[in-house]
Amino acid sequence: MTASILDFLDKKIPSKKVSIKENTVVCRLGDHCDNLVVLTKGEVKVMRIADDGRHITLYSIHAGESCVLTTSCLFNEKAFPAIAITQADSEGYVISQTQLKLWLTTEPLWQSFIFKMLTERMGDLILKVDQLAFDSLETRLIHWLSAQPSALFKNHPSTNCARTCLIERSHQPPA
After folding, report:
1. Which of 21, 36, 43, 153 has the least CB density, counted as fewest CB within 10 Å?
2. Residues 6+ apart with CB under 8 A from 100
3. C-alpha torsion sign, points 150, 156, 160, 162
4. Which pTM value belongs to this model?
């Protein structure tokens, strides 16, 4: 669907694009949303940040995707409930609130894109809540370490042994 939604947008609004540099805050907690952006390039991380600086990544947006929280804000005219920061130079198509709502009633491909995005992100968030609520810290850490590039474990004989590395690293004196 990624290619087809980008082709659709290129035909419908070829000149309505935006470019954003890496490490740019594109939405802050409490911001009013006017437009939806469908990325064609780059990555945006959406997260919540506590007053003490702790944060949780809710999800990341890549080419061919958009922000489900922005979509929700546009549908419900509510303030943005998180913070969104580009992780790389990013580009995308800009869709106004009016266009977003109109296409939902007139364009089956757009309707499918929006509902698929909402369904996938809801599933991702439920999985994240389950992991936080039901998995031990050790289990979550092992999953995180397993997802890291092998360069993180370059000094270990087996790059697929996150648990061993975790135990070895956790029993080293602080640097």
Report:
1. 21
2. 36, 71, 74, 114
3. negative
4. 0.77
Q: Are 63 and 119 in contact (CB under 8 A)?
A: no
**In a structure prediction context, what are the per-residue pLDDT tens digits for the chain, which is 175 residues long?**
677 999 999 999 977 899 999 999 999 999 999 999 999 999 999 999 999 989 999 999 999 999 999 999 999 999 999 999 999 999 999 999 999 999 999 999 999 999 999 999 999 889 888 888 888 888 878 877 887 776 555 565 554 555 455 555 554 555 4
With 0-12 CB in 10 A as exposed, 13-18 as middle and 19+ as buried, what is 75?
middle
How far is Cα 103 from Cα 57, in angstroms, rounded to an integer?
A: 30
Residue pair 26/46 in contact (Cβ under 8 Å)? The answer is no
Nearest Cα residue to 24 out of 45, 50, 55: 45
Write down how long the chain is: 175
Give every CB contact of residue 78 below 8 A, 6+ residues apart in sequence: 72
Q: Compute CA 85 distance to the chain's CA centroid, rounded to the nearest angstrom.
A: 9
Which tokens in the block code for residue 93?
């198509």
Report the Cα–Cα distance between both ends of the chain, in Å, rounded. Answer: 48
